[in-house]
TrEMBL record:
It comes from Pseudaminobacter salicylatoxidans. Residues 7-71 form the Helicase HerA central domain. This is Helicase HerA central domain-containing protein. It comes from the Bacteria. InterPro entries: ATPase_Atu1862_pred, HerA-like, HerA_central, P-loop_NTPase. Residues 281-305 are annotated as: Disordered. The lineage of its organism: Bacteria, Pseudomonadati, Pseudomonadota, Alphaproteobacteria, Hyphomicrobiales. It holds the Pfam family DUF87.
Amino acid sequence: MKVGIDIGSGTNGTSAMLDLEELLATRLLVQGNSGSGKSHLLRRLLEQSAPWVQQCVIDPEGDFVSLADKFGHVVVDAARTEAELTRIASRIRQHRVSVIFNLEGLEVDQQMRAAAAFLGGLFDAERDHWYPVLVVVDEAQLFAPSAAGEVADDARRLSLAAMTNLMCRGRKRGLAGVIATQRLAKLAKNVAAEASNFLMGRTFLDIDMARAADLLGMEKRQAEMFRDLGRGHFVALGPAVARRPLQVVIGSVETAPRSSSPRLMPLPETAPEDVEDLIFTPGPEERRPVIKRPAPPPPTPTADILAQLSQPRPAPEAPSEPVFEIIDEADRDARIETVLREILEDADAAFRSDAILYQDFLVRCRIRRVPGEPLELPAFRRKLAVARSGVDNATASSDTWQQALELSASVPEDVQGVFLVVAQAAVTGAPCPSDAALARSYGTHSTRRARRLLTYFEELGLAVVRTDFRGNRVVAFPDLNCETAPGDPNLPDDLADEQFAAE
């Protein structure tokens, strides 16, 4: 079905139509300096297409929440855990609800992490829910920066990977990216290059004008035209809007943003003497009670100080108790194991980042009065990986399991938990964990990622994966001289847990 969206008028006075079905297949990039009308353009596009397609707006400043009153969008506040945002995004795709993902009030690092979790949930949705969605990302240079800035490296990598998935691989999953940026030079090139439609607004920097002209296939001398564009004027090009560069004036909108451009206002008429009172006289909420400090004691005479210094120093008394607390290492390890079990009993713990789990671990250790210095983050990750394997005390004391721990140290930290889960099944002769169980151990909902980890272990020469005649999977560890029992790889996670309990 072909649906034309009226985004404004062209230079010849005719309506500038945007083919919505073509846009879903080819994506859109909007560029313009602050005040060029970029957000107005996005609002026009969202209002005109709202009756025809599901929409998800990544809104860093909360400007688009006003769409909810007019068009029924649901406002999703980003002040939630990453696991919650991922599950919410999955349900959004399942029920085809248009939403505004409001990131207002969060720091830049938190905005990048929240956007990465939300976009990851949209991207990892089940195949049955791959309905077409218009994903609009305002201020895209925040989420896909071209270079490292003052934000944490892990937050930047997560956000950049999510934006790359949206623009590069999202089309087959029904995700149509519409990204808007103030500076093309600050936007990652592999994200911008995936768009086939462009709307370029006013810009003044030479590097941005040159890149905009290059994307539109214009000569460098024609790039000067971007300085002369008025507010709300854009140059359009792409299969969804125009086959040749076309200057477009964006039409009016039905809703208004919560923030607007600054406008001149007359100064208040106040007498000069009143102005001084307003500035120099504290208000009632600023007044603090005056605290009178006692007078300092008189200085000690010099003769008394010399007399005190000349006196012999008494010998220190031997401490009746040890200076440092004697720590029972066995009791400390037992308490740490208890804390780790409490954390893993939470069903959402598998899908939380190690940093969040580490903070929870430190708080629980203080509550349980665990003696000694707290574990460092690398040691915590190691103990958490061992705890996730579910190994019992008898197996943990065996030589085979100790050898498995040594082998796990040769794989990256983030996959050690998955390796130990499979190794534990091999050491105890339990059925091979299902794809869903391995995905939970890895902290993802994607079973394909879990299967790739088994292939990765094979490439390292640590394991051999085979399938029996019934289609069940068996994983053998040549270095441990043991293998798992046959297990159904398609078994749901809860059924897999019941099978292990029965064994």
